[in-house]
Design goal:
Shape: globular
Strand content: 25-35%
Order of helices and strands: EHEHEEEHEEHEEEEEHEEH
Structural class: alpha/beta
Largest sheet: 14 strands, mixed
Radius of gyration: 19 Å
Distance between the termini: 10 Å
Helix content: 10-25%
Length: 316
């Protein structure tokens, strides 16, 4: 394999994971972005391994399996911020799609007394939960240790990166479509509130809650509570009324959350596309690989897509 000079556009969880795996294979990697990982939508992610709004790709299951395996390996390194935790996927309708369980060996049917009011069934599963305040700095440090360099600037055209690279990878979330003249991207706005964690470890997802998308993801120092899935919304400021509705729903699911101090709140724009785009793109002075459109599953799919991009890079 010939080492390549690779420019990765995007410093979120997908861009960093790609940079890591390319550098691991011996490529000289530069990450170029106008904001660091802790400023990106990745920092807002609740980051429980679960394929929420991840589109329909024939490669999806392979990416899920690869990413889950990598996160499970990382759970043995305390510094990485990855923990394996059991939780509950609530089902509000008969015949819910359970294809995701094919990628989760540790799952079983939830007992009736474990389900909230109105639920018809549920699945208990043990999956990775990633504490992003620990994980993002850890991943950046890993990249730096592998020789990855970071440049903070806005990229407005892929052609501008051709002069000093043998390959460009576009993994810039919502900014990816404009760089590749792809109008299929759309935002799915989310809002969360973070509560102090007194020692709760069990997560819950209730995507069909009558009051709206609801999830509870306890991390090491806090509990991420959500949420919202406003398709097409570009709003970036938390709304107090939405926060209060979120708190009512999560307390209904887990009464122990009542009265816990609010540590912070945030919004983020999930970079959605009907199908994740991961492919070689022609028409530029240098080879280009696209990797974007992960919706709410950027963390969940990050390592699987990084491996696929690294495989493509080796073939170019």
């Amino acid at each position: 394999m010939v080492s390549k000079r690779v420019n990765v556009v995007g410093a979120g969880i997908v861009g960093l994971s790609i940079a890591h795996d390319l550098a691991l294979r011996g490529h000289a990697v530069t990450v170029i972005a106008d904001q660091r990982a802790e400023e990106s939508v990745s920092s807002v992610a609740a980051a429980v391994w679960f394929p929420y709004r991840s589109g329909t790709s024939p490669s999806l299951m392979g990416w899920l399996l690869a990413a889950r395996a990598r996160f499970e390996q990382l759970s043995t390194d305390r510094a990485a911020g990855v923990d394996l935790r059991e939780g509950l996927v609530v089902e509000r309708h008969v015949g819910e799609d359970r294809s995701w369980t094919d990628a989760v060996p540790l799952h079983h049917e939830a007992a009736a007394d474990e389900l909230p009011s109105g639920a018809v069934a549920g699945v208990r599963a043990t999956v990775p939960v990633i504490s992003m305040p620990h994980y993002l700095p850890w991943l950046e440090k890993r990249c730096t240790g592998l020789g990855v360099t970071f440049v903070e600037r806005k990229v407005t055209a892929v052609d501008d990166l051709a002069g000093d690279a043998d390959l460009v990878v576009v993994a810039a979330g919502m900014g990816s479509g404009a760089l590749l003249d792809d109008d299929s991207m759309y935002p799915v706005q989310g809002q969360i509130v973070r509560l102090a964690n007194p020692g709760i470890t069990e997560w819950i997802t209730d995507t069909e809650n009558p009051g709206g998308l609801t999830y509870i993801v306890p991390r090491r120092e806090d509990i991420v509570c959500g949420g919202v899935a406003q398709v097409g919304s570009w709003a970036t400021e938390p709304v107090a009324e939405i926060e209060q509705a979120i708190l009512r729903r999560v307390v209904s699911l887990m009464p122990a959350l009542a009265g816990l101090p609010v540590l912070s709140r945030a919004t983020g724009l999930r970079p959605a596309r009907d199908t994740i785009r991961l492919e070689h793109v022609d028409g530029f002075p240098v080879p280009v690989i696209a990797c974007y459109g992960h919706g709410g599953a950027g963390v969940t799919l990050s390592w699987g897509c990084a491996e696929a991009v690294a495989d493509l890079a080796d073939q170019i």
